[in-house]
Amino acid sequence: xxxxxxxxxxxxxxxxxxxxxxxxxxxxxxxxxxxxxxxxxxxxxxxxxxxxxxxxxxxxxxxxxxxxxxxxxxxxxxxxxxxxxxxxxxxxxxxxxxxxxxxxxxxxxxxxxxxxxxxxxxxxxxxxxxxxxxxxxxxxxxxxxxxxxxxxxxxxxxxxxxxxxxxxxxxxxxxxxxxxxxxxxxxxxxxxxxxxxxxxxxxxxxxxxxxxxxxxxxxxxxxxxxxxxxxxxxxxxxxxxxxxxxxxxxxxxxxxxxxxxxxxxxxxxxxxxxxxxxxxxxxxxxxxxxxxxxxxxxxxxxxxxxxxxxxxxxxxxxxxxxxxxxxxxxxxxxxxxxxxxxxxxxxxxxxxxxxxxxxxxxxxxxxxxx
Length: 370
Prior knowledge:
Elements: H1 20-41, H2 60-96, H3 98-130, H4 154-173, H5 190-208, H6 227-243, H7 254-266, H8 270-275, H9 281-284, H10 289-316, H11 331-348, H12 356-369
């Protein structure tokens, strides 16, 4: 998400190869995230500026639908973005050199983060406060009118942090850190991928014993309960550049991985817990089987969806041109401005008397088009 579009990837045997399918994946992912935030507006669990419908007031069936959608998107979409960001971070550093790369990161990530945190987010909060809308306490302090907050730009702050760590590692490793993306090794075996997913889930569960889902760091809004996956995916992204994994994603069979994803959706813990009157607290953290099952479920959903989508898009959607070509360069801008656009549109239709899920379905194409 940090690059304007998929850039040319230099190969050792001729002209640069363009991975157009990664552009299209980014558009899909940002659309899913926008809809996740829209779902929270109309009753889904999670943190967002405005909640027109409260999660506690909706029926069990709608709770299961909303929780399943948001938990599934949360499980893989942001991790996928960090994977892609790691890939393009390694590629960009190799291509531009350290000095130019740092200047580019400051301009593309640092300045938008500061502008959003110091200007855009306070304006949004002020307007919501003035209209007496519903908002979450991490955005507004009871002692002062407005607190500065990164809002959804926490992703950019985290990416800057991960990039700095990678820069230090790159400087320490020297020339062997890059390899110009020309090294080619076999794609990871399924057994290793499963072990990685299992380990990632267990570490996430251990962190949630202390810092449950929903706890966020002041100002930066880092939810550390999810950061194990983000760190792992960013690191894998830098490896994917060196080992040319995205160039060979079609070696995997998408049907197998989507089958695993479908299995994970069938065995998800939410229908059982919510259907028996249980709340979400047992899932979000603490020493409980629900918390462990959610952390492991999340990790395997991420594994299956990332590989399945990469394999499918590399096989079917790797062409250039068409109407779709105008969308990918705007993906990063969409992420930055979508809170303001969404809040303006949903506020304009507050008086529309429809059931929450119907209203979500009506507003979804409007918000995405805008």
